[in-house]
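User: Fold this one for me? It's Type IV pilus assembly protein PilM.
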Amino acid sequence: MRTEFLGLSISTENINVSYLNRHGIRYELDVLASLNTTNNTNRVANILQTEPSFFSDSMKKIGVRSRNVVICVPEDQVLTRLVNIPNLPENEVKDAIYFAFKSMIPVDIDTQNVTFLPATEKLFHKDFKSYYVVSMDKSKAIEYFEYFQKAGYNLLAIETESLANLRCANYNMKPLDSEHFMIVDLGAEHTTITLNSKDVVLYSQVLNLGGNAMTRLIAADLGIDITQAEKLKVQCGLDQSQLDGKVANSIKPVVDSLLEEIQKIVLYHREKISVPRNLKLGYLFGGGASLIGLDSFLSSATNMLFTKVEPLKNIQVPKKLEKDLLNRVNLPQFASCIGVSLKNE
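Assistant: Here's what I get for Type IV pilus assembly protein PilM.
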């Protein structure tokens, strides 16, 4: 029987929460909220270090009863690798993965909590099997467990944001089993690009660029404050017909850098992944997914189809929540926490 829990995504600026009621194989949305962290990067870090009451008080206001929590964290808090080992007896797999992973990471493996997931398809060679391996510093994991314990909650598991995004895409967007696909998670300070099969992350990369970099460029180019620049970014995006293209031209350097990295990953897929799989789909996640014109720009520049993720596409939404959700023009920023809530084990 599935244990009921809250799904949380914790980024540098936000803590997003979702709670899904399960009815057989279907899910119904019960809670979707962003905790008020004042959009300050240091604020989230301070909350997790010193303010356990912040979370418990926030949950009381929302009216959530579950005391169990599963969280996902950004890629820069974990180490991930795709490990390939020969086909081995099951009792030898764990040691072989640890031995291979140990040589791939820049830290002592004894300082890490290590988990792995097998890929169902042969990605590189018929005599080898691939595993998506994730590790997190043990001291960091302990910090999370202690924080939620002090807040009166039971932290069941920690996973990477990319895995939560993969789960959300599979459940709601239904990519074909025969295809690999890309996820571009455009956050405030960082962007994570992942290459995915149906069940594992094949490759991930974190870029030090995001929505805030665009906002700062607009503010500098147009001589306005950050608040005004953020509004113009949302209103105009990459639309050249708005304000004589001034906003679009300001943010173009960031978008061009993003495109360059996407093209490198497409090339990696073509040259390194031996399984003949199409890479034609890309899903936009995160707060930057709703940037006007981003989907069409990336689609035309890459010969792929980029679309904004619909994180509630196959999840039932009660009528009492529909009006509230209609006012949220940026649902993709909640995709990660919804992906966590879809976790079955």
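One thing worth pointing out: The chain has three domains: 6-75+138-174+311-342, 77-135, 206-307.
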